[in-house]
């Protein structure tokens, strides 16, 4: 479909890129696959994103923003006297279960930063925001350690063949937080 005036075209291309990566992996994203998914001419993707790294960067930012919004929403919903180990374990189970596809996508993009330096700044924004949220409940050094542990536990939960057990995760988190 040809659209002469399409003020949302750039965002549709980004969303299409996120969908391609989510369904088929990072290697499947090309200007051509994004254009086809967004139903725009190939020239539109190269007009808005001069390189594939620029498109990937936009996709990483989009996914990171969504994940940060989910994280902030979770943090704001915590009761004042919440047991952080219990709540974090439950959040990991939620992210590995109900939000599995989004979590896998985030880690795929995060891992892409290993080989694509242009993605590093956007990828680290998740860690920075996670640490910032944790600093509202623990000191800065513990927040950084908790960020690393949280990421590791979530990654393990995503690659594990079984469903993560909240009690097992809680026990590990409690070791750090007590």
TrEMBL record:
Pfam families referenced in this protein's UniProt entry, alphabetically: TetR_C_31, TetR_N
Matching SUPFAM superfamilies: Homeodomain-like (SSF46689), Tetracyclin repressor-like, C-terminal domain (SSF48498)
Domain HTH tetR-type residue range list: 7-67
Keywords assigned by UniProt, alphabetized: DNA-binding
DNA-binding region: 30-49
Lineage of source species: Bacteria, Bacillati, Actinomycetota, Actinomycetes, Pseudonocardiales
Protein's UniProt name: TetR family transcriptional regulator
InterPro entries referenced in this protein's UniProt entry, alphabetically: Homeodomain-like_sf, HTH-type_TetR-like_transc_reg, HTH_TetR, Tet_transcr_reg_TetR-rel_C_sf, TetR_C_31
PROSITE patterns for this protein: HTH_TETR_2 (PS50977)
Domain of life per record: Bacteria
Provenance organism: Lentzea cavernae
């Amino acid at each position: 479909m040809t659209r002469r005036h399409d003020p949302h075209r750039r965002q549709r291309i980004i969303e299409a890129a996120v969908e391609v990566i989510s369904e088929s992996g990072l290697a499947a994203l090309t200007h051509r696959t994004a254009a086809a998914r967004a139903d725009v001419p190939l020239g539109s993707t190269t007009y808005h994103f001069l390189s594939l790294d620029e498109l990937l960067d936009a996709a990483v930012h989009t996914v990171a923003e969504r994940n940060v919004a989910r994280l902030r929403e979770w943090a704001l919903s915590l009761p004042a006297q919440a047991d952080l180990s219990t709540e974090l374990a439950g959040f990991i189970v939620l992210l590995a279960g109900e939000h599995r596809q989004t979590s896998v996508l985030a880690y795929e993009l995060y891992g892409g930063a290993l080989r694509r330096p242009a993605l590093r700044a956007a990828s680290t924004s998740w860690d920075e925001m996670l640490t910032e949220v944790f600093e509202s409940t623990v000191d800065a050094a513990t927040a950084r350690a908790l960020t690393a542990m949280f990421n590791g536990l979530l990654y393990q939960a995503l690659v594990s063949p079984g469903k993560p057990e909240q009690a097992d995760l809680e026990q590990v988190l409690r070791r750090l937080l007590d």
